[in-house]
Amino acid sequence: MKPLELTETNFAETVKSSQMLLVDFWAAWCGPCRNFAPIFDTAAGLHEDVVFGKVNTETQQDLAADAQITSIPTLMAFKDGVLVYSQPGALDSRGLEELVASLKNLDMDAVHAELAAAQTSEP
After folding, report:
1. What is the DSSP string of 44-108?
2. Residues in a beta bridge with 75
3. pTM assigned to the model
4. Which residue, of 41, 43, 74, 113, has the fewest CB within 10 Å?
5. Which residue in 57, 62, 65, 6 sits closest to 29, CA to CA?
6. Which residues, 6 or more positions from 28, have their beta carbon under 8 angstroms from its beta carbon?
7. 29-88 residue pLDDT tens
8. Residues involved in catalysis
9. Up-side HSE of residue 100: CA atoms within 13 Å toward CB?
10. How far apart are CA 122 and CA 13, in angstroms?
11. pLDDT tens-digit series, residues 93-103
């Protein structure tokens, strides 16, 4: 499946409604972004159970700012609506496949428990 174009209009709902979402923050002028795009697109076709989305940081500047994007490409992953990965830099195909596999195996009960513990320990 082709990656979705994510905008301020559909980003929050896509995060909320997707069991697992990978987001590529990119720009047309960015060489590493252009090199990463076919890798990301290929992975989107291989993993029908994962939603892949792209945010053009030039046309979605407010969304990129809200996501605190300071370097592109940046890859973010959400699972069950929770941000579980955010890293600048392009991955090769093997690195992206390893990331997808680790995200699929991520124990969200443990993640939610950690988040709950962190919230109760805050003053």
Report:
1. HHH-TTSEEEEEETTT-HHHHHHTT--SSSEEEEEETTEEEEEEES---HHHHHHHHHHHHT--H
2. 24, 87
3. 0.91
4. 113
5. 57
6. 34, 56, 58
7. 999 999 999 999 999 999 999 999 999 999 999 999 999 999 999 999 999 999 999 999
8. 30, 33
9. 23
10. 28
11. 999 999 999 99
